[in-house]
Amino acid sequence: MSVKVRVPTPLMKLTNNQSEVTAEGTTISEILNNLESQFAGIKDRICDENGTPRRFINIYLNEEDIRFLDGESTAVKDGDEISIIPAIAGGA
Amino acid sequence: MIDFTDEQIERYSRHIILPEVGGEGQSRLLESKVLLVGVGGLGSPAAFYLAAAGIGNMGIIDFDTVDLSNLQRQIIHNTERIGMLKTESAKKTIAALNPDVNVTVFNEKLCAANIMRLLDGYDYILDGTDNFATRYLINDACVMTGKTNIHGSIFRFEGQVTIFKSDKGPCYRCLYPEPPPPGMVPNCQEGGVLGVLAGVIGNLQVVETLKLILGKEETLIGTLLIYDALKTEFRKLKLKKDPHCPVCGDHPTITELIDHEEFCASPR
Which of A36, B45, B151, B161 is most buried, judged by most C-beta within 10 A? Predict the structure, then answer.
């Protein structure tokens, strides 16, 4: 399965400044591992040592937060869009 | 409905002729109470348009003074006011724009000890702050008092807007239970920000605030709006209330306000 992954500004350093990349996998976990194989170090920024997304980063499958689906086991299909959305605090 | 003066009828005529606002809506705006936390990048355009719209009572919290490097985006201040308290500068600009607005300024740094006093009397809290510590504090206080938190944040070319209203939808901690540890997320001072992005996002916060005051149903409660200025793209993501949320969930573990200062990734 090939999906589009939206990369947030703070992580674009790891994706050669690309805000959209393609990844392969059948679940969110597999997608994250595939991202790591393409862009070393990115998984560590998104997930903690247990492989679950950090508490200040959310992952959306299309419009839905995966925490309210099946978490990292959420199945993905061809053409889905994954968004990685970290908390940002800027305002001044 | 309030009795408009002839001058008010003329000033707000473009609002009053809108069926969605009308005299009644304009009255509501003139009677509303909005608190701006921070009159910087987001707060400057927000204060400007809230004042122009005739928000009758506006509180402004900021402890900082105007700096030359602010003026690339903080349009309510100007070059002559470098060194002036931002609250005083904002008050001056608003007074010159619209005398209908009663402005109350608070030259204080928001913290757990003063937030309940500062929020008191305001219904809508517009978060224009620049650090996680204050954002979590505003969230928790708004959940505890049932106030509406109009949230906006910016980084480089990207912005996020939503409304947190815990009796109708999620709060900030439903989204992100805890602030990131220091250094994990860069701030604007380190990362830079396109000045006008603050205008886009701050004004989207104003649009949502006005809609809430006017009683409009379709707002950003439960929706995160993301704007990517480089791609010229708006996206909407669904936000859900988390039953396990530490502050607004079924069994809250956070029942007192916390100063997250030690986690703050944004040194001033």
Answer: B151
How many domains in chain A? Answer: 1
Q: What sign for the dihedral angle of Cα B259, B266, B209, B71?
A: positive
Share of chain B above pLDDT 70, in %: 94
- Domain-embedded: residue A92: no
Q: How confident is the model over B106-158, as pLDDT tens digits? A: 999 999 999 999 999 999 999 999 999 999 999 999 999 999 999 999 999 99
- Let me know if residue A7 belongs to a domain: yes
CA distance B84 to B70: 12
CB-CB neighbours of B192 under 10 Å: 12
A22/B contact by beta carbon, under 8 A: no
ipTM for the predicted complex comes to 0.93
B155–A9 C-beta distance less than 8 A: yes
User: Could you count the other beta carbons within 10 Å of the beta carbon of residue A63?
Assistant: 14
- 3-state SS assignment for residue B63: coil
Question: Where do the H-state alpha helices sit in chain B?
Answer: 6-11, 13-16, 22-31, 43-53, 86-97, 115-119, 132-145, 172-175, 188-191, 195-213
Cβ count within 10 A of residue B95 = 12
Check if the beta carbon of residue A3 is closer than 8 Å to that of residue A80: yes
Are B180 and A56 in contact (CB < 8 Å)? yes
Range scoring the smallest mean pLDDT among A3-12, B180-189, B218-227: B180-189
Unique residue bearing structure tokens 């109350």? B104
Domains and CATH numbers, chain B: 16-263 (3.40.50.720)
Least CA distance to A60: which residue of chain B?
Answer: B237
Phi and psi angles of residue B262, each rounded to the nearest 5 degrees, phi first = -65, -20
pLDDT tens for residues A25-69? 999 999 999 999 999 999 999 999 988 999 999 999 999 999 999
Q: Chains A, B: CB contacts under 8 A, how many?
A: 103
Beta strands at A2-6 and A57-61: parallel, antiparallel or unpaired: unpaired
Instruction: Please report whether residue A91 resides in a domain.
Output: no
Question: Among partner residues B40, B158, B240, which is closest to A91 by beta-carbon distance?
Answer: B40
